[in-house]
Design a protein that fits this description.
By secondary structure, this protein is of the alpha+beta class. The chain is about 15% helix and about 25% strand. The protein has helices at about 15-20, 105-115, 165-170; strands spanning about 30-35, 40-50, 65-70, 80, 85-90, 125-135, 135-145. A hairpin with a 2-residue loop joins strand 6 and strand 7. The longest helix is centred in the middle third of the chain and has 12 residues, at about 105-115. It starts with 16 loop residues before the first helix and ends with a helix.
Length: about 170
């Protein structure tokens, strides 16, 4: 019996050209949050998590930034923010403007997340971290507490309503 710690090997993930352009040092992922109500899977929101500086992590808690993604167009639809409430119109390292930037394969990534949401029916609210590679979407992980604060930072919802209208609708709250 071994007393050494367990190790897990994973394959190297190469991002699509358009996703890597934003910050090539990190694997930039979309967090696609699904809510399962019965057999219907709803998309609560999509944010893109992007690394910064020399960091390999896209997590905003590790120095990265986040911005909203429009589910229908696949474009970034907000400025980016970090965990310290700083606002970025362009990526601080690459200079790429966030708002309006077209991401690849968003519809495929959404379909992938919807399919994943049906696998374990007991878990109804999941944030799927999905990377887009040249070959298509790849699941990094599922988060049972996906951080509803991520998408509700003031610059991401200028109408100041956040997710309340969405949840009222899917839960049929009057």
């Amino acid at each position: 019996q071994s007393t050494s710690p367990s190790l897990m090997r994973t394959a190297l993930i190469s991002m699509s050209r358009h996703t890597a352009k934003l910050h090539p040092q990190s694997v930039n992922t979309m967090r696609i949050v699904t809510d399962r109500v019965g057999d219907t899977v709803h998309i609560a929101y999509i944010v893109l998590k992007i690394g910064r500086g020399d960091g390999f992590c896209d997590n905003s808690g590790q120095g990265g930034v986040i911005c909203r993604v429009d589910e229908k167009t696949g474009k970034i639809c907000s400025v980016a923010t970090d965990d310290y409430f700083n606002v970025y119109e362009t990526h601080p390292d690459t200079g790429i403007r966030f708002e309006g930037y077209q991401l690849p394969m968003v519809q495929e990534a959404v379909a992938f997340a919807r399919k994943a949401a049906l696998v374990v029916p007991q878990i109804c609210h999941v944030g799927w971290d999905v990377a887009v590679t040249p070959d298509g979407p790849v699941l990094i992980e599922g988060n049972d507490y996906p951080g509803t604060d991520l998408c509700q930072l003031a610059p991401h919802y200028p109408e100041k309503q956040g997710l309340w209208p969405y949840y009222k609708e899917i839960l049929n709250i009057k």
